[in-house]
Amino acid sequence: MKTPAIAAFFLATGLLLSACRKDDDNDPATPPDEDWPSDSIRVLRSNLNFPWEILWGKDDHIWMTERAGKVSKINPETGATVFSHTITDVVSNGEGGLLGMVQHPDFSSNGYLYVVYNYNSPSGYREKVVRFTAQNNTLTAPFTLIDSIPAAGIHNGSRLLIAGDKLFITTGDANASARSQNTSVVNGKVLRLNLDGTVPADNPIAGNPYWSLGHRNAQGLVMVNNKLYASEHGAGVEDELNIIEKGRNYGWPRVEGPCNGSETSFCSENNVKGPIWSTGNVTLATCGLDYYNNDRIPAWKNSLLLTTLKDATLYRFALSADGNSVSAPQKYFDGTWGRLRDICVSPAGRVYLCTSNGNNGDKLVEISRLD
Fold first, then answer.
1. CA dihedral 186, 309, 228, 113 (to 10 degrees)
2. Are 117 and 70 in contact (CB under 8 A)?
3. CA–CA separation, 118 and 97 (whole Å)
4. Which residues are within 8 A (CB) of 298 and not within 5 positions of it... i.e. 6 or more apart?
5. Residue 88 CB neighbours (<10 A)
6. Alpha carbon distances (Å) from 65 to 30, 126, 203, 356
7. What is the C-alpha radius of gyration for the chain, rounded to an integer number of angstroms?
8. pLDDT tens per residue, range 10-44
9. Can you tell me the distance from the alpha carbon of 163 to that of 194, in angstroms, rounded to the nearest whole number?
């Protein structure tokens, strides 16, 4: 693991930014006027291959990763590619490859773009978080924040989110579940770093990037009213929606879903926090997560929106006033486009979905209203 010295810059803003600005305070109550296609639902792009992250950039374009290593900037009105850049040391093995992405809060001036991806090292298949500088229609100046994270063909995480001046990273257990309960290993955790890769002084353990533990494979992350929500894949039961708190244990592999039965004693002894929702005796393959609070689609206001892979469906969860609970979910677009990997919301309240079907058959879909 690399933890480089503090760079010359250090910005502390109140902006919360992750996939498609996954926060609660930047979506206007009234959508701005736009000269824009009026379709309620349209396929913006086709012929994609395993897109993994989509975010609404601070330059008002859609930024997307594809698992084989491509980062693309897309015009959200026309679907045209402004530019693409391939990160050459990405190695896509099974479910691994180029995964999460997030922009620095001051991206408009510094161009800093953070990505997480898998690569081959002398020690084997690994994962790292790298900051690039986006300028002149390319990515330059790679700077590694953390590397040598054990990786595998499954369970690599990894979603990125920036809240203020902190970077949150979800890591999977890389198909070795015991890692999730071991605080000396970065797998199966939510990690928290400063934006230069150093470890914040107020993390649960001094010098340790871990923020929460006991995770199997969290692939959705969003901040709403200073609460951090994560979606997580269960093994054969109990996909979860969790509120992530400092130092808390989320149970895996000793606990699946809510604490009950023989799990109760482990929960009470290890500060386990149960999910605010889980799938029970099935799995849906919960993935990308975002927050919606815009008048464009009134039925979705103050809701978490969750994509699923196996269930190929978009789920909406209305948040309670205090944000500590959610309503029973409503389902949309069941099987319409196949497996749904990620979601993002534009400041105008348009919702974007990307699929994960492979064979260059994936799509980027825009939802402007529900007819």
1. 70
2. no
3. 5
4. none
5. 7
6. 30, 18, 29, 12
7. 19
8. 333 333 333 455 544 444 444 455 667 778 999 99
9. 10
Which residue has 């002149």 as its token pair?
136
To which H or E segment does residue 241 belong?
A: strand 240-244
Strands of 5-80, DSSP E: 16-18, 41-48, 51-56, 62-66, 70-74
Dist CA 167 CA 365 (whole Å): 28
Residue 215 neighbours by CB under 8 Å, 6+ apart: 170, 171, 172, 173, 180, 188, 189, 190, 230, 232, 250, 252
| Chain Cα centroid distance, residue 362 | 19
Do the beta carbons of residue 55 and residue 69 sit within 8 Å? no
Which amino acid belongs to residue 361? G
Q: Is the peptide bond before 158 cis (omega within 30 degrees of 0)?
A: yes
pLDDT tens digits, one per residue of 256-301: 999 999 999 999 999 999 999 999 999 999 999 999 999 999 999 9
Among residues 198, 142, 140, 138, the alpha carbon closest in space to that of 9 is found at 198
> Cα–Cα distance between 132 and 216 in angstroms, integer?
28
Alpha carbon distances (Å) from 221 to 123, 217, 274, 291: 29, 12, 17, 10
- Both structure tokens of 187: 């797998």
Reading the block at residue 120, the tokens are 């081959």
